[in-house]
């Protein structure tokens, strides 16, 4: 409550109390939040509930399978898939529940501090996802297009790669915690992320660096690797179609087998 003093028409001073804004109301003003309709919030909440349950169950089953089967953890590609499942499960735990609860309530429930925590946590996990996908594409490129380098992709090397993936993520998601940009509510006020629209020099510079080093480089890497894989796959397919008159060599047979296995892994991961 705020107490104000005004002058009475006959010259006397009187006190009256102005109700203080709640934290949510103040956040709506400070961050220009545009609330959805009640039906919009409920629809979003139901959708996120279903998505969160499916994601949690699916990724939990994948992690359980990897933990149960030691042989699976001995393959470098599988370690990256396990890391992807861990980061996805993290989003299911630290992202969906916060946003879903806020959608049911029709407002952000966790205040400014909670907004910073959620923004940092989910952005770190999402960035880890992106880093892992880029590394997976590179591993598949080596496996299919440069098999003579396969010996370098050992489980120990992959564990170091996974450690670097998390370090790289935190390096790029931690600056807003120390004042370089910030984590703020998103337009509808039920989740939080980087302040993407801040036009001041420092935040804008941070945003552009994120776009370059946390998005464009990853997209270029993924597109390049899978394009090269597709080219190699077409070459092997062409050789296979001519195998009646010209039998496939050992390297081509192995490459065809690797491509078939990669397709299966990609299909499983898509679901």
Automatic annotation (TrEMBL):
This is G-protein coupled receptors family 1 profile domain-containing protein. It is a multi-pass membrane protein. SUPFAM superfamilies: Family A G protein-coupled receptor-like. It is found in: Membrane. It comes from the Eukaryota. GO terms for biological process: visual perception. Residues 58-271 form the G-protein coupled receptors family 1 profile domain.
